[in-house]
Amino acid sequence: MYWRAAIHNWSGRSIEPAIDLGPYGEELRRYLTGIAEFPENCILLVVLPTHNSEFVKLMMHPYPTRTHGFRVYTMPFLGISFSLYVGRQTPHDWREADFVRGAGNPIIVASHFEDWFRHDLALLFGGENRALSMLDKIERQ
Q: What is the pTM of this model?
């Protein structure tokens, strides 16, 4: 999904890609086709919530945030958060939590799962109340 979002905007409102993976787009393409290893400067975190909430129903295309010299692209999908960290400054000590390269393909269970999405939605949609109102409208349809 990340690679697809980096080559095309599926919303139909723009011809620009939804996210910009920079040079990692080509590296991810090579990984997906079996030509290369998962990019060295990428980390994929998979996070589950500790309890059910309205955010468990949420599905979104990957959306970008920037953190401390690297980029994070998050994609919530039915209670699972997939976050792709890209950039040379991604913390090397996070490699243990990397779903692709970490021992046993680790999945993180986080009690603050909902807080993360409330924060992200507030940034994306101009405030937490507006974002939650949008979720309510979607649920009623």
A: 0.80
